[in-house]
Amino acid sequence: MIKSSNNIKVLKSPPLEGWEAEIWNILETVCDPEVPVLTITDLGIVRDVKVDGELIEIIITPTYTGCPAMDMIAMNIRLALIENGYSNIKITSILSPAWTTDWMTETGKQKLQEYGIAPPKGNAETIAADGIECPQCKSINTKLISEFGSTACKALYKCEDCKEPFDYFKCY
Amino acid sequence: MKNNLINYTLHLADSTLILSHRNSEWCGHGPILEQDIALTNIALDLLGQSRNFYQYAATLMGEGFDEDKLAYLRDANEFKNHLISEQPNVDWAVTILRQFYFSCFQHFFYNELKNSNDEQLAAIATKALKEVTYHLRWSSEWVIRLGDGTQESNNKMQNSVQALKDFIDEFFVMSHYETTLLTENISVDLGKIKLLWQQKVNDVFEEATLKFVPSNNKQIGGKNGNHSEHLAILLNEMQVLQRTYPNSVW
Predict the structure, then answer these.
(1) CB distance B34–A148 less than 8 Å?
(2) A172 contacts in B (CB within 8 Å)?
């Protein structure tokens, strides 16, 4: 395992050809079970795809250490690949480099906001708590209600203008 | 050396598992919904950390071991958790203060462990540190809110300081396996983080108008399997399913 470093850019499928592009395309259809609007590639959970003969290895990294969705994500990756005719599949989970919300794609952030969840603000080093934009009315006159929300990755906020409560995807 | 590494990894796994279990006892009983959710989220993070440590310990121990066996089929005298993690919740004030002490310790501890020569321990620490940063922020705010709150909340917090005072020293006393691993730069030098911990606690206590109370009856020994009676009772409940129906799975 490599030593930790958070400076690695998100491995979003580059212009690939052949099997690589096909596998990345399949992975792009697998959604996060807790935030179904995001795919696992939006989140940056998929770190690498390797092929050794017939064997396809998908390298993933957990978001939060205790995230109960990880087992389901691994199962959904397997199912998606099986549905597309692959049978020899290995899913490996690695811890380093540690996942960060900095790997979330811009598309992912956009989708979150449209879904009603405020996307992470700034980067993981700053863990901002103020000035979070309300996903409904776009006001930044918002208030933290609780650092911990409905899932490990979210905090609970309230908009002081439109009065709607909303989830905020915390920086990590 | 390998045995020391196994013991060290189990110590880290046990402490996080036991505190996770204590916090999870609040599920459905928190003073308000948001804080019930906060504490159970922290429990979940701690459980995730303990799973990572148990999985690693199991690979070090070899065939026949897995995370479930290590968590569910060991007896109290085999557990190496800090004594503070097994203490009963008592009330919200004690729970909050214990979480604050523990998060504060974890914060400085993981910050060192992430430079460990053991790459897997370093990887777990790097990841866990992100979560602990939120735990520390949350628990500090609660200590301040209650300490600098009403006369009653201040009394309850000051009583908690009294209730937990004997369990602090154990954070900073090296067990034999930690001392040995330090020679290879695998374990954390606990003496090095003691001052940082004290400084942070002092800062928060000052704002919370709380007084630190020294202990003259320091309790240590958890890291070597010597526990208070509370651990056996906790394990009895936590392990009942695997003990009653061995090898059952969901």
Answers:
(1) yes
(2) 130-131
Q: In whole angstroms, what is the distance from residue B93 CA to residue B232 CA?
A: 24
Q: Tell me the CATH number for domain B2-244.
A: 1.20.1260.10
Angstrom distance (rounded) from CA A24 to CA A13: 6
Cβ distance of A98 and B37 shorter than 8 Å: no
Class of the domain covering A18-102: alpha beta
The tens-digit pLDDT sequence of chain B (250 residues) is 799 999 999 999 999 999 999 999 999 999 988 899 999 999 999 999 999 999 999 999 999 999 999 999 999 999 999 999 999 999 999 999 999 999 999 999 999 999 999 999 999 999 999 999 999 999 999 999 999 999 999 999 999 999 999 999 999 999 999 999 999 999 999 999 999 999 999 999 999 999 999 999 999 999 999 999 999 999 999 999 999 998 888 7
Domains of chain A, by residue range, sit at: 18-102, 116-169
- CA distances to B19, B222, B223, B229 from B77, rounded to whole Å, are 17, 9, 10, 11
Q: How far is CA B93 from the centre of its chain?
A: 17
- Closest B-chain CA to A63: B127
Q: Which residue of A has its CA nearest to B46?
A: A66
Helices (H), chain B: 2-24, 33-61, 67-72, 83-86, 92-113, 119-147, 151-164, 176-182, 190-208, 229-238, 240-244
Is B194 buried (19+), middle (13-18) or exposed (0-12) by CB count in 10 A?
A: middle
Q: Indicate yes or no: CB of B122 within 8 angstroms of CB of A96.
A: yes
Taking an 8 Å cut-off on Cβ atoms, the answer to whether A66 and B35 are in contact is: no
Spell out the domain ranges in chain B: 2-244
B38 at interface of A, judged by CB pairs closer than 8 A:
yes
Query: In the beta sheet, which residues pair with residue A62?
Result: none
Query: Which chain B residues touch A124 with a CB distance below 8 Å?
Result: 130
Quote ipTM for the complex: 0.82
